[in-house]
Each structure stands twice: as structure tokens, then as C-alpha cells.
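During the second half of the funding period, the structural biology subgroup turned its attention to how the target accommodates small molecules. The most pressing case was magnesium ion, which had performed well in the primary screen but for which no bound structure existed. We therefore specified the complex as follows and requested a full 3D prediction, including the ligand pose.
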Amino acid sequence: MRIGFGYDAHRLVAGRAMVLCGVTVPSDFGPDGHSDADVAVHALCDAILGALALGDIGKHFPDTDERYRGVSSLVLLRECYAMARERGYTLGNCDITIVLQAPKLAPHIELMRTVLAATLSCDIDRVSVKATTEEHMGFTGSGEGISATAAVAIDN
Ligand code: MG
């Protein structure tokens, strides 16, 4: 078994869609970035790549590459997981925490889990998605940004 950990953060700006775990959450602002800026999926990709000791998402999908402009990060996740499958690994479980002040994500968590489980072709009980605020402290608390962490276990 191997484990991996990922972290990502993005600036929040007006007029951007807030896509988290492949789900568009109603919001007047969203994460800025080259792709759809799905901070949760980026953290999960980094966790998978970390478990494989294959570097990070910026190495495999550079933001200077026009192929990835506006792309759904689920495409990147599929590619990262394919690298694990090619090496004989399957997902044990993953656990994501999204950190932002607003909006509340609770109504969307189950759909996020469903989308990730479908993308990874696994049972939903292997996919955990949680959300928290930092109680108005720091860059997530002020609404300046959003961050996410992800832990993953893969086994062969
Ligand atoms: Mg990112």
C-alpha cells in the first residue's frame, strides 16, 4: 500500500464558476486559474501523484500548456489515476477537505462524492469529501481564497 497527500489553494474572484469535485456550486465568485481551477480535484491529483512519487500536477499538466486552458479537472484526475492503474494500483480510499468561508457546501457533498466515485470507477464509500471554514481567519476566512487538502491510499 502507498499513501499520498495533496494541497492546493486558489484566489477567489468575481464572475468565475465555483467548480469543486466536478460539481458547479452556485456562487457569485469562484477560484481563478488556468483550468476550471477545481482546487479539490487538484489536491486529489497531487495526492495520487504523491503516492506514486511521480511529482506534482504542475509537472504533468503545466499551466503554460494551452491544452489545459479551461479544461475540467476531472480530465486531469482521470489521467493521474490512469498512471496508478498502469502501475498496478487501485484506489483504497481518499479523503478530501475543502476550506472556504462561503457558500456552505453541505448540500453538495453527496453529489461531489458521486462524481468522484464515477470518475475513479469506485464505490462511493471509498470517497470522503468534507468542508470546513477557518472561522473568518486567514485568506480563506476573508474570502480572498479557497484551499483543499487530500489524502489517498492506493494498493496493488
Ligand atoms: Mg490548482
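Two results from this model are relevant to the next phase. The mean pLDDT is 96. Residues 45 and 77 are 6 Å apart (CA to CA).
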